[in-house]
Amino acid sequence: MGTVCSHTMGVMEQIGRYRLVARLGAGSFATVWQGHDDQLDVPVAIKVLAENWSSREDVRNRFMSEARLMRRIQDSRVIRVYDVGTLQDGRPYFVMDYCDSGSLDQWRRELRPPAQAIRAAAQACRALQVLHDHHVVHRDVTPGNLLLDSSSDGSLVVRLADLGVAKSMLDDLGSTMTAGTPSYMALEQATGGNFDHRADIYAMGCVTYALLTGAPPFRVRNLPDLLNRQEGQHPEALAGRLGVPAELDELLRRALSRAPQGRPASAKAMADQLDRIAGAIEAGGTEPGRTSIAFTHLRTPAPAWPTMPSDDEDAALTRRQPAPRRAAEPPSPASSATPAGQPSADRPAASVPPPQQPVGPISGGRSATPVPTPNPARHPGPLPPAAGWTPPRGYGQPQGSSPAPHRYGEHPAPTPQWPGQMVNDWSYLPPERTPTPSGRGAGFWWIIAVAAFLILMIVVWVIFQLT
């Protein structure tokens, strides 16, 4: 039996008991709405399967699998599902947490101070550890899939979203697809072989680098670019460029290793090291003349659910191509997660504990899932934000410019890069068509066609003259 929907002049106004407030974004396979539960008086986000896919049973099953997975992982650091249903036209939907403060993709474009970016990356690692403790690999960790939510005490929490391509390590579904975003994808994931939680750790290395510089560490637009990455290729060092500790460059070098065994053993281990580095920066040890920076959110009118891929994040999906001759790495177990916390500015970097709570007040905001208040004896309080901080030259944008905030759905859909690839917001559905040739190859065939036509016309003219 379908759920009743209200329509006015063709515009959907309500889904079940949820009143629709605004459309947050639409992709090839789903539309996300901001809604409001009038009975509980709470905001919600509602994801509805696109009409053109509703007749595909495999697509419907994958859609509902995402909802079940998000429901099963009951943790405030992962977006949770509260309700599911079916529209009158047969399309399934599910209702989930609404995050009111944008995503880390907006932070990537704004280029926040290094300590803020590193703290946010550490929180994201701890959210990933929750998934790994449930034996799940996310497979598409990008800044746009890491949302920011204001908690009841006014601080910000990084929450992991969009589990549409997540794969349980305990389930072997015989998948024949490679899914994910190439510029954040580990090599072993791109080859379609066996991979484990360390593929997500590689992605977090890319996310951390992108938050600090505005772009992923490697110029990768498609899977061939990723597969052709040279052995020993490393991104530009950040210590001299941003005034961050050299330890950060070493951590990123390990996280971005082509070989899984060269990466940090767990997302928690990476989070702990990121927090130590942020503590050193906040203590002023590596940034002379710069005041300590708290994980403080400056509220902007950015949308609250920007989980669609942006124009430089090409979420790619292909039917599996013939596997390149690269050996897959064996899996290793993930360690358990711990909550996040806050270091003190006057404490030595070596003694800064991992944070138990996101720090830094913001104005207004509330969350349906409040976070425990940190112990004041261990955490003396938020540090003041840096005044007048501006990115240094070469930080990823021209000096004096201000990157436009990312608005969910404003960027055109990415274009397929080669036959058989499809770029979309979920990245787990098979392509329906093969794109036509374009670029230099298409121009060559146009020249051949024109030349053949001219030759034919000359032959006809000669025959006509002879007769």
TrEMBL record:
Pfam families reported in the protein's UniProt record: Pkinase (PF00069)
Keywords: ATP-binding, Kinase, Membrane, Nucleotide-binding, Serine/threonine-protein kinase, Transferase, Transmembrane, Transmembrane helix
Organism field: Naumannella halotolerans
Bias (Pro residues): 371-385
InterPro entries, per database record: Kinase-like_dom_sf, Prot_kinase_dom, Protein_kinase_ATP_BS, Tyr_kinase_AS
Residue stretches of biased makeup (Low complexity): 334-350
Entry's Gene Ontology molecular function annotations: ATP binding; protein serine/threonine kinase activity
Annotated region (Disordered), positions in chain: 301-418
Binding, ATP: 47
Documented EC number(s): 2.7.11.1
Gene3D superfamilies in alphabetical order: Phosphorylase Kinase, domain 1, Transferase(Phosphotransferase) domain 1
PROSITE patterns: PROTEIN_KINASE_ATP, PROTEIN_KINASE_DOM, PROTEIN_KINASE_TYR
Entry protein name: non-specific serine/threonine protein kinase
Signal peptide limits: none
